[in-house]
Amino acid sequence: MDTIPAAWLKADFLLLGEVHDNSAGHALRLRWLQQLVQLRKVALVFEQLDLESQSALDQAVQQWHSSGAAADDAASKAIAEAAHFNFKGWKWPLYTPVVTLALAHGLPLGAANLSRAQMAALMSGSGPVPPEPDHWGEQQRLNLLQEVREGHCNLMPEAQLPLMVAAQRARDDGMARAMIAMHQRTGLPVVLLAGNGHLRRDLAVPVWLRQRAPQARVLSVAILERDTPQSFDPGVVYDAVAWVPAEVRPDPCEALRKRLSGSPPGSSPATP
Predict the structure, then answer these.
(1) In angstroms, what CA-CA distances link 24 with 114, 150, 252?
(2) CA distance 24 to 249
């Protein structure tokens, strides 16, 4: 799917997924965005930036505009640094072209994620348990629990999973709130760039968008790796799916196993 469908131009909220380290998927999504911004001005909201960094992000973009500097990779990195982009947790070269594209076209930029400190508080049980969406039933609870379990290679202690599920719900709700706030602030359609798990129409950000903005047109487009087993039907949980070659990488489950073996009792691994 190299050419974006006309339906994307009518969406109020367009969610474009990623496998975080897959370069082919990032390149495909960039081509989509290049087409999209030629046809429609949008705001871009990033999972890779924490909500609490929005003011710093706004200030950095305003300073760049005032400076008259070019919309290039150096400007993009300076803005990412000001917005506290986690260069160790995320592969910045995969996101550089998107930020540069946004600067070149004057697209508003938004932050959408909970901070690591907020996530740690939720997963330790020291913060209030975030609410479930309206009409959330036992099947959704079980499905989200299973997604979190499988997303951590079935290695996490079962007793810890409910807290991780609560943190995932809070992240999804936060991303939806960030998208709605950006839409209200700019009057523009909003594109979320986030991991595929946050795009699920049955469990994640779209659920919260439908609850908080029931009249909005929401489209969720996943980018998945070929020949990678899925425990669900992608055609059911996403509005559209694009397939890219799998990235060659070390076994992530082995890396997680090593991290867990070195973790203090009761702690949980921090994931971006």
Answers:
(1) 27, 24, 19
(2) 13
Q: pLDDT, tens digit, for every residue of 33-69?
A: 999 999 999 999 999 999 999 999 999 999 999 999 9
Token pair in block for residue 75? 């400007």
Q: Label residue 267 by pLDDT band (50, 70, 90).
A: very low
Q: Residue 125 belongs to what H/E stretch?
A: none
Tokens of 101: 């594209």
Candidates 206, 195, 130; CA nearest to 166 is 130
pLDDT of residue 178: 98
Sign of CA dihedral 166, 87, 186, 117: positive
Q: How far is CA 108 from CA 38, 126, 172, 188, 189, in A?
A: 15, 34, 21, 9, 11
Q: Give which of 157, 40, 194, 44 is closest to 109, Cα–Cα.
A: 44
Lookup: tokens for 127: 């913060």
> Would you give the DSSP letter of residue 2?
-
